[in-house]
Amino acid sequence: MNNDSKLLIDKLEADGALSPAEYLFLLENRSPETAQYLFERARTVRQRIYGDEVYTRGLIEFTNYCKNDCYYCGIRKSNREAERYRLTKEQILECCAAGYDLGFRTFVLQGGEDPFYSDEKIADIVRAIKAAHPDCAVTLSFGEKDRKSYEAYFAAGADRYLLRHETADCDHYGKLHPGEMSLQRRKQCLWELKDIGYEVGCGFMVGSPYQTNECLVEDLLFIKELNPHMIGIGPFIPHGSTPFAGQAAGSLELTLFLLGILRLMLPRVLLPVTTALGTIHPAGREQGVLAGANVVMPNLSPLNVRKKYMLYDNKICTGDEAAECRRCLAGRMESVGYRLVVARGDYKAV
Ligand code: SAH
């Protein structure tokens, strides 16, 4: 193994941070041996805080209407081939009730930016979920809103908000999004969410078109500055009906390496293995947990809409009952020495 890399990994574990040049060195000099050492350190750190527990979140993809046109995303507004759907409050509550019986104690409402759901509608849904399941956390994830909207959902009882920053490099952001979207606005939302009191998650795609190691260093620096409770990363996967149809997917290897780095940077962070990681490799999620991740987010959406929430091609688990998904994931986690637990799975503060 490259001894300089090993020393940098030790330094990252001790300090929780490296200089930009040091992050770049680590990324540019990756090797299987260095990665194994990184993962071993990441597992040790994770074990100290979260033991062998893996938290689960029930993901409810409640709308695939979107007013945005992100070049990478399968539910972008310009994709005329996407068959659009919305779930009613009753359907969402049914998903939660079924999920509760299966042992889920966090529900994630994710969707496109769909103006149909007014702040009142969202607040009403959040209140209804919290009334039915007071022991559960509600996570929201449907993009950029005004501060007062975020405040209204929080007042209704929402606990967490996921908003990937997608890339912390301004030029790169402009290559992934149309001109009306900005990195500055995205970051502002994240700071506001934090300020309001949410547990906040940011994150980015690995191997998105035009991404360089320098972009990834920017991501790491921004994440350290934000100090989020959660970080969602997963490989970019092309979708055939988007401008990025012909682009290459991100790699398992780089995604795992970044999971390991993130665990050492923020030892307490809630770090999911994403469906995208399971899509590019059959054992992607197991390997993700072995690299330092500690959360899985299986799908609770009704079966008849699953195939319509296609952010990228070949998404896995679109035909499986929620119960099957949970059983399958429990088995996968056990196969690598971890266990799914029935718990809200909050951030463990010091
Ligand atoms: N509209 C919400 C939720 C977006 S979907 C929002 O703006 O936050 C959740 C995440 O899926 C996105 O943040 C993006 O990082 C990821 N995603 C979208 N298209 C993808 C693709 N082609 N490959 C991999 N991940 C993708």
Helix and strand composition category: alpha/beta
Written as H for each helix and E for each strand, in order along the chain, the element string is HHHEEHEHEHEHHEHEHEHHEHHE
- The averaged pLDDT comes out at 97
The proportion of strand residues reads 5-15%
Distance between the termini: 34 Å
What small molecules does this complex bind? Answer: S-adenosyl-L-homocysteine
Strand order of the largest sheet: 2-3-4-5-6-7
Number of helices: 14
CATH architecture: Alpha-Beta Barrel
Low-pLDDT regions = none
**Helical content band:** 40-55%
Question: What does the overall shape look like?
Answer: globular
Write the layout of secondary structure elements.
Layout: H1 3-15, H2 20-28, H3 32-50, E1 53-56, E2 58-63, H4 89-102, E3 106-111, H5 119-132, E4 137-141, H6 147-156, E5 160-162, H7 170-176, H8 183-196, E6 199-206, H9 213-226, E7 230-235, H10 252-265, E8 272-273, H11 275-280, H12 284-290, E9 295-296, H13 303-306, H14 322-335, E10 339-340
The structure holds S-adenosyl-L-homocysteine.
List keywords for this structure.
TIM Barrel, 45% helix, 6-stranded parallel beta sheet, binds S-adenosyl-L-homocysteine, 10 strands, single chain, alpha/beta, 350 residues, 4-stranded parallel beta sheet, globular
Can you put this structure into words, describing what you see?
With 350 residues, the protein is of the alpha/beta class. The chain has one domain (53-341): Aldolase class I (TIM Barrel). Helix content is 45%, strand content 13%. It has helices at 3-15, 20-28, 32-50, 89-102, 119-132, 147-156, 170-176, 183-196, 213-226, 252-265, 275-280, 284-290, 303-306, 322-335; strands at 53-56, 58-63, 106-111, 137-141, 160-162, 199-206, 230-235, 272-273, 295-296, 339-340. The strands form two sheets. The protein has a six-stranded parallel β-sheet. A four-stranded parallel β-sheet has the order 8-9-1-10. α9 (213-226) links the parallel β6 and β7. It starts with a helix and ends in a 10-residue tail after the last strand. The mean pLDDT is 97. The structure holds S-adenosyl-L-homocysteine (SAH). S-adenosyl-L-homocysteine is lined by residues 72-73, 110, 112-113, 141-143, 163-164, 166, 205, 234, 236-237, 239, 276, 311-312.
